[in-house]
Hints:
Layout: E1 3-6, H1 13-22, H2 31-50, H3 55-62, E2 66-72, E3 79-80, H4 82-94, E4 101-102, H5 110-121, H6 128-149, H7 152-157, H8 160-176, H9 181-193, H10 201-204, H11 212-228, H12 244-249, E5 256-259, E6 270-271, H13 282-292, E7 301-308, H14 310-314, H15 327-332, H16 334-344, H17 358-365, E8 367-371, H18 373-378, E9 385-391, E10 396-401, H19 409-424, H20 426-437, H21 446-450, H22 457-463
Amino acid sequence: MSIGLSGSGETSMARQMARSALALRLADFDAEVIAKAKICLLDFLSCAFEASDHPWSRQAIATVYASNNGSTIIGPGLLANPGDAAFANAVMGHGLVREDMHAASISHHGVVIWPTLLALSEQTALSGAALLAAAIIGYETGARIGRALMTPELARLHRPTGLVAPLGAALGGGYALGLSEGAATSAIAIAANTSGGLNEWPHSGGSEMYFHPGFAAANAVRAVQLAAAGAIASETIIEGEAGLFAAYGRKRAPDRIELFPGGEAELMAVYNKPAPACNFAQTASQAALRITYELAGSDEIESIAIRAPQAAVRYPGCDSKGPYRNALQAKMSIPFSVASTLVRGEIEEDNYLQLDDPEIARLLALTDLQGDPGFTAAFPAKQGAEVIVRLRQGKTIRQRLADVIPASPAQIRARFRDAAGHSIGQDRAKRLEHLVDACDSLPNARVIAAHCRQPSEQTVRSAS
């Protein structure tokens, strides 16, 4: 399966994408791709459930407009208009900073795609197979565009997720709703007009990062709705003289972007984070954790050297050694993630609550973070890191990992069961997991979203 998209022919890239995507069916994808989509959905839901009571989640929910015939807000049992539900669910899914990651586009596509599709699934008859196919198409579209568009320099200023994920989510949503080729093209173009998100937050300590995917998902829903209502947008929005590449990349769009080349799906390049922290802090934290197995105590440490890809070193906030105004700044910091792991001997959410820990502060002052040529050359296919700890008695401990070790399906399921069970009850969580696993055979996918809220007698009747 190979889809060619040409920016140099008479047909626009957005229309070529729409035409190709609308011809696909779930049976066109390998079993491992379908299984990965289901795991990514469970992972998104686990994050949303676990973060549902975080301040930014409560703030997002406070802005929604209730609707008796609306879409589910994960956890509390509220219904809202589809755009508002997508906004709130995306914010919650992003609330732990543990969402899935596509390194080549430096983007979190799932936290935009799943809220968009779940919201739309409760507004139209949509099979589970169509839901999964739409998600796979959404990941592929956003990831391929992002792979071509994003650079470390661009990512220092603009949030990659906010730039490219709306386009993928809009095409996925257009597919799910069965839009025509022209309408799906307009959905992509309208979504591209909403691309945005600035990376000032790591420097200032702001919390707007949590809301970036919320805006992206809500805008994707609105783009699909507008296109379905007949709105027409610029077909050349990707490659045009004022299109996405010209506006943000300050460069010409590639002549060709190929989707699913040789049957390969970008979804398989997405990994599920093991730790609730920035993508670029994951591997170094894992290396640090291995060092703790050889360490009697952090008080032995005299110096710390961290080596990572240059993209990691240059991403906003990743080189910060404090002071930190909030946990988000700590989660973005590679030095903090390493220091807190060395002090606490674990990589957990509580690591990022220790902003005033004197021992972590001591280690941060002893830390040197630099780019490594080998890791830089291997990125984004691999995200390596090395941590070198020198002890007071002269001994050196080093751990070098060629790539991040993603969370396993078993780990994802365990944290889903824990978070969902706590939010909606163990029986309902078990049923929800079964529905996701059987998604490709569901005649109506709305039951998945309906089972994401706390049960009531009316909810149970309507979702059964």
